[in-house]
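Quick question: what would this complex look like in 3D?
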Amino acid sequence: MKYQSHQIALNFYTASVLLFLVQALVGIIAAFQFIWPDFFILNFNTIRTLHINALVVWLLMGMMGATYYVVTEESETELWSIPLGHLQFWATVIAVSAVVVGYIIMGLNPQANIEVFGTRLLNEGREYIEAPRWADILIVVSVLLFLLNCFMTILKTKKFTAVQGVLLGGLTFLALMYIPGMFYTKSMVKDQFWWWWVVHLWVEGSWELIAAALLAFMLHKLLGTDVKVLAKWMYIEVGLVLFTGILGLGHHYYWIGTPEYWLWVGGIFSSLEPIPLLLMVWDAFRTTRETRGVVENKIGLYLTVAHAIFNFVGAGLWGVIHTLPQVNKWTHGTQLTTAHGHLAFYGAYVLLIVAMIYVTLPSIRGVKEFNQSRGFQSFWWMTISMIFIVITITGAGMVQTYLERLLGLDYVTVKASYNLWFWIFRAIFGVTFIVGVWMLVKDVLILGRKPAA
Amino acid sequence: MTTTSAKNLFIYGSLLCFVVLVILTIDTMGKLDQRAPVITEKVDAGKKVWHKYDCIGCHTILGNGSYFAPDMTKATERKPKGYLKKFLIDPRAINPGTAMPSFGMSEQEADDLIAFLDWTSKVDTNGWPPKPILAAAAGTRTASMGQMLFQKHDCSACHQIQGIGGTAGPDLTYIGNERPDVEWHIRHLKAPDAVVPDSAMPGFNDLSEEELRQLAEYLITLK
């Protein structure tokens, strides 16, 4: 380990892959509940909250780990405060555990979700941002401590690199965009309006900035490509991400009670959102092709390129198919959104963090050669499973759109009868997905610790 | 393009887009209250009930949420409020086949929640959800008077016949076998809970005696 600070990055990586496993396990429970609603002691709402909150938290922890790594390596120094980094890690773990315990209590006894100071004690009852207000405040404090540590580290050696700029810019933007979700509005329309600021400007804004910065970092580290060339393309990519993504927010404002002009704004800008993602794919391929010499960390490069491809397919293509208002009028709120959500998060962010772990973990553990076959196996188990999960949910969404929305059949009938086989296949591929996640967790724990086979 | 110009384009272009978003947001905020009914205290209390029980953990509202259970935007248009109230308090007592668990909701909470859902059903959503385009074309050609009444009063919002219709009330596919008595149906349609204790179905007193008979005669043909 070159820097002691990298132990903090490693802690974050370990916690994030473990939470990934938890996310996949509760995902399986949710998948079975589609077939058999009373399958588990906790109802679907609690399981789904855990599934998605675990996803968001493990990706954020992965991003934090990656950032601690990048900042120390780019600044060529230890973190401004190593104890603060450890404190921030453990504070995050404790806060997240407390929130999870709260969700479970509320799931077992809904009446326990009492009102305290005008807000709910255990579960705010708002999708994705269910965490209660006290937890929101802890999350903000944790992110501020994290940002402080990173910025002070950069100030120590004053090496203002492009990657660090975009990475921390994206993280600051992320922190700021959490605020619109932290107040109560009496109108459900305004509630959803601000809620989308958080959700959309995170995943289709700030998170894509972080992805572009990490992509440039990984390509440089893996292939030794000239930083200047990578930086130029990174700026073009993140520029296009925000030109299309900020006003692309309009595609969430078609049907929630907002004025009609959003149909135009959302339709036009969100249709352009795949362009920067396609550019990232091209960037990854071009950089790889132009590289001379042997790439040592093949699995790292493989995952980096796979991230770029699946970011484009999942977030770009699977999103753009139902982004036009003419189409979305029929598909809004159907399983097609679920299909898009699964492939987009897998491609854009799961593979990003997994790639980042494989690119940096060998350096953290101080090895050059390591057993790469486990990484490839885990990648294929997860990726093939996810492709089939997405195909089954896409099929379910198409059937639902036709039967429920166009033909007027009852929602419950379509879900319980016509879509049953899709749910069964989805659950089966969910189980094979877990096999891949389990391999990943095991590999992260042992990579580089034993001699390469 | 140099790295610096790409960087400047990114920074200033993004800021410009963000400024446009802020302007559109301010404009939208000024218009939202005209596109929805007034929010009474009861509606607000209902919204808090919605959050308390994490309804969005299974349902969608305005199309956003969890896709596990039906969309609630137009719930009060689709189902009678009396039914909704009984259902919310104890779902499985009303519809044994439902996936919805009992949360221990009080009468007051159920009333508030229904007021909130009534508010959402009246929000101007640019025409969402659209009316199913093919439903109108299905099965209306050779309909009897009773069958037309069945459609006119939207009985299929709650009842199914051969797989088509809602699941809130009992399936009527074989009701002619199960309840072959026309007079029973007439009494039941007038005042359901006088015939079936604790029934959550609303009475259809606005139908004439003749219409009730036609509807009942149609029902006993279902076998």
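Answer marked as accepted. Chain B has a mean pLDDT of 92.
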